Inverse folding.
């Protein structure tokens, strides 16, 4: 059901910018931007309302060269600056770097209240999985932002390593009158089902974390709104995926996987020059 509503939201968000752009034609800006920084908060179908955070840096394909200018004949002094070349051939194309940190959930996760305490527990869960994704890619500007209104639309494609941080899911349970903290397998959950009290602190679990390598990919469209060409606010929507070298055992059952793919929606803001 969540995925169904998420798909509907994505379709509406994709359709709205293009219809708005078509209805309000305005004069374009004269300049392309050279670089930008943006911070984003992500929602995705991996699960959870806030699925992760992202930082994106994009830079134009321009390559820079040194310019030496004389400050006057006979002065012997010069001014050194830098300029750009190749602008006509490379405008509207950008290199990009993305750093994303997000949580990945198994589709079968379901939080329930522990009967003795009422604390939320995901029964059957063995590990949490977090992905750290430094990705490199390219952006192509489809529609340039207008002078006073309109939408800028970019196509973004990125790939890079996915550092999977596996954090044990530690639960607290009653064992002959004593409170014990540990990681339960499938049999453990069946045997201790009614004795589970809650979960251990995240810091305690993080100290026992391990890492698995993988590959990340992303394909998306970004829609930028706003009045100013130097500040940016908008949304990015598309598909993300993480492929790991081995199956990551998130749940105690045997239906775990090494490929996790999802649709995502990121709200971002930042600046450019």
């Amino acid at each position: 059901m969540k995925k169904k509503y998420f798909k509907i939201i994505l379709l509406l968000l994709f359709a709205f910018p293009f219809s708005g752009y078509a209805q309000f034609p305005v004069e374009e800006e004269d300049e392309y931007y050279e670089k930008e920084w943006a911070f984003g908060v992500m929602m995705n179908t991996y699960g959870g309302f806030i699925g992760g955070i992202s930082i994106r840096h994009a830079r134009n394909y321009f390559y820079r060269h040194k310019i030496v200018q004389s400050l006057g004949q006979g002065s012997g002094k010069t001014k050194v600056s830098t300029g750009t070349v190749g602008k006509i051939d490379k405008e509207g194309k950008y290199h990009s770097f993305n750093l994303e940190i997000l949580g990945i959930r198994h589709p079968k996760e379901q939080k329930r209240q522990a009967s003795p305490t009422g604390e939320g527990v995901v029964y059957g869960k063995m590990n949490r999985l977090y992905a750290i994704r430094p990705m490199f890619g390219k952006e192509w500007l489809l529609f340039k932002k207008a002078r006073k209104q309109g939408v800028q639309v970019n196509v973004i494609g990125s790939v890079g390593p996915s550092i999977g941080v596996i954090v044990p899911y530690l639960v607290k349970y009653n064992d002959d009158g004593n409170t014990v903290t540990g990681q339960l397998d499938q049999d453990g959950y069946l045997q201790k089902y009614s004795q589970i009290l809650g979960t251990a602190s995240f810091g305690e679990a993080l100290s026992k974390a391990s890492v698995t390598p993988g590959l990340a990919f992303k394909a998306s469209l970004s829609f930028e709104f706003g009045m100013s060409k130097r500040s940016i606010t908008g949304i990015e929507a598309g598909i993300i995926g993480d492929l790991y070298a081995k199956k990551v055992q998130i749940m105690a059952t045997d239906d775990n996987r090494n490929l996790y793919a999802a649709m995502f929606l990121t709200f971002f803001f930042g600046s450019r020059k």
Q: What stands out?
A: The first strand starts at residue 35 and ends at 44. The helical segments are 2-23, 87-90, 186-192, 202-206. The domain at 2-112+123-166+205-272 is CATH 2.40.160.20 (Porin).
